[in-house]
Amino acid sequence: MSSGAFTGAGALGSSWLKSSHDGLRVGYLNGVTISVADTEGDLLFDTGISPYFDGETAAVYDAAASVWNGTILYPATPA
Fold first, then answer.
1. Which of 1, 2, 21, 54: CA 20 to 30 A from 60?
2. How far is CA 73 from the centre of its chain?
């Protein structure tokens, strides 16, 4: 194993950015790593796996945000 090999450690949940701007620290969230895989069978992780976030995903997010009530329970239950 080379010292620069990707280990996959800490990769899960990592953001995939598209059109990022380092100076402003902004970009479009394109996905989130949900798994890593060894596709070559050499015991090294060489592939990151993510669902693809697109305009349809953004529409679902926007629709959910418009009805957010501060709880994950629906309907909201009094504390």
1. 21
2. 23
Q: Measure CA 8 to chain center.
A: 14
Asked whether the predicted pLDDT for residue 51 surpasses 60, the reply is yes
Tokens of 39: 């596709």
Q: What is the CA radius of gyration of the chain?
A: 18
What's the mean per-residue pLDDT of the chain? 81
48 burial level (CB within 10 Å; 0-12, 13-18, 19+): middle
Which distant-in-sequence residues (6+ apart) come within 8 Å of 51 by Cβ? 31, 32, 34
Residue matched to tokens 């394109």: 30
pLDDT number for residue 74: 61
